[in-house]
Amino acid sequence: MYMAQSTIAHKIVHSCHNMPYRSDMCRCIRNNCFTNKRCKCKRDEKNKKTCTVYCKCRKGGRECIDPASVASTSTASTSTSNIRPLTVECLTLESESESEEEELEVVETIINPWQEKSKKLENEKVKEMENKIDALEKQLQQVQKEAEDKIDALEKQLQQAQKEAEEWKILAYKKINECRILRNANHELTGKIQVFCRIRPRTSKEMLQQKALCNINFIDNCTIEVDKSDGSDAMSCSGKQQRTKQFSFDKVFASNASQADIFLELSLLIESSLEGYNVCIFAYGQAGSGKTYTMEGEREPQTEGIIPRTVRHIFRVIQERQLMSTTTYKIKASFLEIYNEELYDLLETTPKKIEIKYDCAKPIINQQDLEKYLQHARHNRRVASTASNERSSRSHLVVRITVSASTKEGVLPTGNLDFVDLAGSETYSERSPRAQQKETTKINCSLSALTRVIRSISNNDLYIPYRDSILTYLLKSSLGANTASDWPRVPAAAICPQCSTLIITVVVVRRSTITHLTALTLFLLGYV
Ligand SMILES: Nc1ncnc2c1ncn2[C@@H]1O[C@H](COP(=O)(O)OP(=O)(O)OP(=O)(O)O)[C@@H](O)[C@H]1O
């Protein structure tokens, strides 16, 4: 056993015999660490080699045991051989325990102030946090109270609004019924056939050409007087010569009338399709008189025509009605063309010839659907340049919008809205190309057939010549013979399309006693 001498590092001395130092040969009792330094041997006065190494633990005043020397001692003395290692072990443990206690004390002296400080800090922090939590809890309670108050107020408002909505619903329901009654009364008074006249303004081209105007005097809202501008005298039915002629309509729209003005006049009639009425609106007049403009119009909202406005209006009314009833509505539309007495579906890529009974209606989910189909149909419709119109329609266009309604109880009557943009009536000319002559003949023939049908209906004839033309056959249900029900026959109207050079003559026969469910409106578009 050797004593450690250094306060900086344990000095471990052993007989190394100049051998490389082995870590298991010497260990520091205190820290149980081993050095790995090579020993530096010295010879003492007896020429005995002594090796000194320093343990790295740098704890002074502790013993180091040279296991080699312990081992050599044990072999020398057999009687103490068993006790000695145990004693050494015991001493080692004692010393370890002591040193650990001391260390603990040192550590405690270092740690204690920190612990106290930390505890103090912890207490402060806890207190601070508790204060914050208290404040937050108070805030939360305040917010909760405010929210509850607001919810209460909103609930009261909601109840009030619900009550008001109920009252409005009842009022709206009453108004709808009143409208229905008024509309029916109006139908009765007007004979369910109305003829309006719209006089279009001069186009920019006509202004440039400084075309002569015929004089139109607006006698009142329903009457116009046409004065022949060329000075020649017109012949009256009685054979009397006259310069001026008066025409009466249900309403006359002057050239400054907007598309909205025209639609306003028709909106009530159009709404009746939602209750299962059949409505038929014709645009009738000379080529270039503004029929397509009135029916379809242009793409801008201000100038769009009756058809797009109708669909928008129907969607709006349906939305309003669905707020107060569970009735569901479905809208379908077909775009048909009658060209040279043949029927075509205009929604095909190229117009497809179809039979009259063929159902080619497409569902209309929103306004965009209709606009898309209308564009497609417009593109497919046959037009040609004529003397009076650069894009003159050479065919009749029939846009049929079907509104079907159903409730939980069952299906309601289906209403058809037929918009008919008739081909422009033209005077037959031997000088026109043959194909155009054929078109003109067919157009005029079908217009005559339409006239005959309406005349027969107005005369209450037993036989109505619906089959005389594709147009009249297609419009059979709208014109009156509604085979799906026992509705009475159609209203009477007679059109006498004797074209003067200025304006088409129209004779309307009204029957105020008619109680059918079909409404027919005729448009005459004066071409000036
Ligand atoms: N109310 C109006 N306001 C402004 N321009 C109009 C009006 N009515 C018609 N027009 C213009 O007059 C021209 C002829 O109109 P449109 O093509 O609608 O006549 P149409 O009766 O359909 O002719 P067609 O029978 O030859 O097809 C078009 O350029 C159109 O824009």
TrEMBL record:
GO terms for cellular component: microtubule. Residues 192-518 form the Kinesin motor domain. Pfam families: Kinesin (PF00225). It comes from the Eukaryota. Gene3D superfamilies: Kinesin motor domain (3.40.850.10). GO terms for biological process: microtubule-based movement. InterPro entries: Kinesin-like_fam (IPR027640), Kinesin_motor_dom (IPR001752), Kinesin_motor_dom_sf (IPR036961), P-loop_NTPase (IPR027417). ATP binds at G285, Q286, A287, G288, S289, G290, K291, T292. One of its GO terms (molecular function) is ATP binding. Residues 119-171 form a coiled coil. This is Kinesin-like protein KLP2 isoform X2.
